[in-house]
Structure formats: C-alpha cells, structure tokens
C-alpha cells in the first residue's frame, strides 16, 4: 500500500460493549483529536439499535454477518444483515467512502487486558509492534484466518481490533476507556508517520498468541452446561495451560483437566457472549515472529 487515504474508527459492533461506543462518541465531539494532515479519519457506530437495547445484537451477531455471499444475498433481511450491507456499501472496497484501515473497538468479560487482534500481514504486524513499543502490556492475538471469519474488519485488509477487559457487558470503566482512546490516538499518529515515510523500524522480534482453536463447555445431549470454568483458570487469559491442568469444575465439584498434547495459552476464558457460540475459551500458541519489516 502506497499511502493511507482514509481510516475508519468503528465502535459498537456489539451494542453492549460500551467502551468503544463512548470512545467513538467522544472523538465525534472532539474531532480535532482525530484530524491528521495526510489522511481522513471517519468514525462510525455500527449497531445503534443494539446499543439502544443494550444488547450484543438484535437478530444476529453483526460481527459474523460479513460473509461475501451473505452480503450479496439481498433476500437476507435481519437487522444485522441489512446493517452489514449498508456498512459494506459505505466502507468496503467498492463502497462510497472506501477505507484503507479499520480500528475496531470492542470489550470482553474475559481478562484480555489490552489486546490487539490482527493477522500476520506485515503492515498489521508493524502497526501492533509500534503500539506495543508505547505500551508493553499489550498482548498481540493473531486471530482466525479470514476464510473462516466474517467480522466487520474483514471488509478491509489492514488494521486491528482492540479488545479490552475484563469489563462487564453494558458497563463503562474509565481505565479501559482511557487506554482504548490512547491506542486509537497512537495508531493515528503511526499512520501519519507511515504516510510521511517515517515509520520507526523496530529491530526486534514480536511475541504473538496465534489462534489454534476453541473449547466448548461440557454439555449434555440437550446442550445444557455440565460444568463451569475451573476457578484456577478464571481470569488466567494468556497464561500457560499444560496437559492435565484443571479447566472445568462440574456442579458436583469434580475437576476436568485439559486433555491436549502440548501447552497452550487460553484467551477469552468465560467470555459471556461466547456461551451461545459453544466457546468456553479460545486456545492460542505462543510464538515469536521475526522479519516482518
Ligand atoms: Zn465485541
């Protein structure tokens, strides 16, 4: 990519994730914070109806509604299907105001700290490396491949999702608000330097957590939960989990252990929004990557 023309800051893809929504509202009220000389910054609240209802979504998860074939299927008529088409028609490659980079703001009930989710395109790795250099507590989560993932950011190749937590759904916490805002501002500063050809180059490797799969809760035939996240694992996102270590606790107090073959690093542990998706946690492997400049 030669230069960045337009950046989109999007909040409220999930209506009950208040951090990103209120950051976007603040930036809309203080536009000078996001104005830069060499590109245009747009802001957008993705699911206003779900926000008004303080729900993740109205009919279906907007962040799973951007499959190409679904976007082209005009018979799909749920609120989020229609909204996804509108968003794609605004900001997608063939849209009215196509964007080059998306910063997508979310929060989680899991102990994600400050997480940047992206993929291993070099632009994206360089962006998160820069942001981590300013705040070493940031975790880099390389999430699922685009063929299996139909979130809003999939309409654009570049950028990252900011995921902060643990924060309950429908709740604003000032610390995460401020950290999210700082990440957005720092990212915009980075794009400004990028367009000037003044990218700071970091002669270092990057530690990442790469998505390798998910684990569901133990359930009976009718899908009812048979166990809970083990108290030893609760809030232990990004910590090593070795085979044989506790992951679930049954209602009778019996411990269920991790049966994998090697140590993994779970994230999104006990995320409230994932019960319905059949996900008790996502598993990652810790990797150090080099040579992405
Ligand atoms: Zn979300």
From TrEMBL:
<dbReference type="InterPro" id="IPR055438">
    <property type="entry name" value="AstE_AspA_cat"/>
</dbReference>
<feature type="domain" description="AstE/AspA barrel-sandwich hybrid">
    <location>
        <begin position="205"/>
        <end position="286"/>
    </location>
</feature>
<feature type="domain" description="Succinylglutamate desuccinylase/Aspartoacylase catalytic">
    <location>
        <begin position="4"/>
        <end position="190"/>
    </location>
</feature>
<feature type="binding site">
    <location>
        <position position="274"/>
    </location>
    <ligand>
        <name>substrate</name>
    </ligand>
</feature>
<feature type="binding site">
    <location>
        <position position="17"/>
    </location>
    <ligand>
        <name>Zn(2+)</name>
    </ligand>
</feature>
<feature type="binding site">
    <location>
        <position position="163"/>
    </location>
    <ligand>
        <name>substrate</name>
    </ligand>
</feature>
<feature type="active site" description="Proton donor/acceptor">
    <location>
        <position position="163"/>
    </location>
</feature>
<dbReference type="InterPro" id="IPR007036">
    <property type="entry name" value="Aste_AspA_hybrid_dom"/>
</dbReference>
<feature type="binding site">
    <location>
        <position position="106"/>
    </location>
    <ligand>
        <name>Zn(2+)</name>
    </ligand>
</feature>
<feature type="binding site">
    <location>
        <position position="14"/>
    </location>
    <ligand>
        <name>Zn(2+)</name>
    </ligand>
</feature>
<dbReference type="GO" id="GO:0005829">
    <property type="term" value="C:cytosol"/>
</dbReference>
<dbReference type="Pfam" id="PF24827">
    <property type="entry name" value="AstE_AspA_cat"/>
</dbReference>
<keyword id="KW-0862">Zinc</keyword>
<dbReference type="Pfam" id="PF04952">
    <property type="entry name" value="AstE_AspA_hybrid"/>
</dbReference>
<protein>
    <recommendedName>
        <fullName>Probable aspartoacylase</fullName>
        <ecNumber>3.5.1.15</ecNumber>
    </recommendedName>
</protein>
<keyword id="KW-0378">Hydrolase</keyword>
<dbReference type="GO" id="GO:0016788">
    <property type="term" value="F:hydrolase activity, acting on ester bonds"/>
</dbReference>
<dbReference type="GO" id="GO:0008270">
    <property type="term" value="F:zinc ion binding"/>
</dbReference>
<feature type="binding site">
    <location>
        <begin position="63"/>
        <end position="64"/>
    </location>
    <ligand>
        <name>substrate</name>
    </ligand>
</feature>
<keyword id="KW-0479">Metal-binding</keyword>
<comment type="similarity">
    <text>Belongs to the AspA/AstE family. Aspartoacylase subfamily.</text>
</comment>
<dbReference type="InterPro" id="IPR050178">
    <property type="entry name" value="AspA/AstE_fam"/>
</dbReference>
<feature type="binding site">
    <location>
        <position position="56"/>
    </location>
    <ligand>
        <name>substrate</name>
    </ligand>
</feature>
<dbReference type="GO" id="GO:0019807">
    <property type="term" value="F:aspartoacylase activity"/>
</dbReference>
<dbReference type="InterPro" id="IPR016708">
    <property type="entry name" value="Aspartoacylase"/>
</dbReference>
